[in-house]
Write a structure and sequence with these properties.
Oligomer: single chain
Order of helices and strands: HHEHEEEHEHEHEHEHEEHHHH
Shape: globular
Length: 398
């Protein structure tokens, strides 16, 4: 298969057109081709690059945690400005927009609403509409394929981790999602998607991630393909007092705490909703974070494994797994304070867990001792079916 950047470099007509324009590139460390050459280097000399943009975690991908900002800089070799869209601003300013005629968006995404690169995409599209600039998406795989899971974000819960009424796991590539943004928000923006060639979002065993494509961290804690697969569930732990594994070598693959009996929690999960635990293996483990929550404390926890023959993208439901785990914790430790109240992605007037989930419904289900997995499943299936119907018309790949 060929990535969007690789298709662009073979498209003589499009390259000829771009040579007449000032071009900017939105990129990060995972903006590479199959040979791991970076898109900024590949485009140099092929088009007139006049600027570049970096998203959260920086164009270099060096910023470890949320709400750690990156400054603008000048590229040391190409001497073009690299503007930060996670520093003093979250969307391009007039000064930044004045540096280009066409912007190429080439970020590797994780297929999860909360991963901020799609909000950055939406903001750039809005500014391109406003200033009559062109945006071209160099499409990339969705590492979790076509699976859809989670509630659709509620009105009033829009944030940098929630660009619009999208479920947590939305099953589109960034090119397809850009088309949805344009249609849903009725945007008059000059948008083009450079499609991948030979990409199948449902092909086994990768189910969205081609076997011949190396994994490069799109952000510091997106270290493995399993992390990407589990992220639509494990990211919710950021809004709790539990550890999501930051400070370990398996961030957002392991979940635990120094004050929770996870062997009992896992047994309770199996009793409450065993059918939600398919498509992966949950392994009891212990870990000690070197920093972040539960720093230097021995934690009991679970590790989600999708790196073996048990992985099945259709059956694997990370959002339900983590929801069930939090419900089981309430059953085993009724007085445990799960939810952490702190500023999350610059939102200070809502509970972080609700910001992450795009509404309070999941938290309310967890806190309601009489609520059952079937009650949550009913809510989820309604939103998932709605999104499946709404998003299908934007599919570019079979």
């Amino acid at each position: 298969m060929q990535l969007g950047i690789e298709v662009l470099l073979q498209d003589k007509k499009l390259l000829k057109y771009l040579k007449t324009k000032r071009v900017s590139l939105v990129c990060h460390p995972a903006s590479v081709d199959h040979k791991l050459n970076h898109s900024l280097d590949l485009l140099q000399g092929k088009v007139k690059l006049t600027s570049a943009f970096g998203p959260q975690h920086g164009a270099k991908g060096d910023k470890q945690d949320n709400m750690i900002e990156t400054a603008d800089e000048i590229h040391p070799h190409y001497k073009i400005p690299i503007f930060s869209l996670y520093g003093e601003v979250r969307r391009p300013t007039l000064k930044m927009m004045d540096t280009f005629d066409v912007v190429l968006y080439d970020l590797q995404d994780l297929g999860c609403r909360i991963y901020t690169f799609i909000t950055t995409l939406f903001y750039i599209m809005q500014e391109c509409e406003k200033f009559q600039k062109e945006i071209i998406i160099l499409d990339r795989p969705n590492p979790i394929g076509r699976g859809i899971e989670g509630m659709i974000l509620e009105e009033g819960y829009e944030s940098f981790v929630g660009a619009g009424p999208i479920p947590m796991r939305y099953g589109l590539t960034v090119g397809e999602l850009a088309m949805w943004f344009k249609d849903h928000f009725k945007m008059n923006v000059n948008l083009k998607v450079v499609k991948m060639k030979g990409y199948s979002p449902t092909k086994k065993p990768g189910y969205g991630w081609p076997q011949d494509l190396a994994w490069v961290n799109p952000s510091p804690n997106a270290q493995t393909l399993t992390m990407a697969r589990a992220y639509t569930g494990t990211v919710m732990i950021e809004g709790t007092h539990l550890s999501e594994g930051r400070g370990t070598t398996r961030a957002l693959e392991i979940i635990g705490a120094s004050d929770i009996d996870f062997p009992q929690v896992l047994k309770t999960m199996e009793t409450m909703g065993k059918s939600w635990l398919r498509g992966c293996v949950l392994r009891l483990c212990n870990f000690e974070p070197t920093f972040h929550k539960h720093e230097k404390k021995l934690c009991s926890g679970i590790q989600i494994h999708t790196d073996d023959a048990f992985y099945n993208s259709t059956q694997f439901k990370p959002y339900r797994i983590v929801s069930l785990m939090l419900k089981a914790i309430k059953e085993v430790h009724p007085n445990y304070e799960i939810f952490r109240d702190f500023p999350y992605e610059y939102v200070t007037d809502k509970l972080a867990f609700d910001v992450i989930n795009g509404g309070p419904k999941l938290r309310e289900w967890i806190e309601n001792r009489s609520a059952k997995p079937a009650d949550l499943d009913k809510i989820l299936q309604k939103d998932e079916k709605r999104w499946a119907k709404e998003s299908r018309k934007f599919y570019l790949y079979k």
